[in-house]
Amino acid sequence: MILYIFFILYYNIMDTIFSSVNGLLIILVLVINDIISFSITKSVYLQSGIFNTKYWLIIPVILYGLQILIFYYGLHKTSMSALNIKWNLTSNILVTLIGIYYFGEKINNLKIIAFVLAFLSIVLFGIESYVIK
Predict the structure, then answer these.
(1) Cβ atoms within 10 A of the Cβ of 119, count?
(2) Residue pLDDT, tens place only, 35-47
């Protein structure tokens, strides 16, 4: 019952917010959601800071559940394929940078090439939406 009430309130709030924004802001919200989810998950795995128990994993689970509604509102602003690819590529690049610079993960030359190609893909998708009508 509490979850149902939360869902209804969340739906109404999101409907109000996202009805007046563009697709880029929705992609940004999806990406920030991913960054927070993956960072908490990695911190729980490392048991670092306040994230020393598995109970913290409830936050990424809730955030992932909310992504469906955010994605739904994004579909009102752009196509599913464009929204999905821009969201995933941007998220992958930023999560990778957090992994490298915050968590100290290492990447090899092949992964650097893949990283550059992912960035170029985002640029091409962005250009496509302005050039091809």
Answers:
(1) 14
(2) 999 999 999 999 9
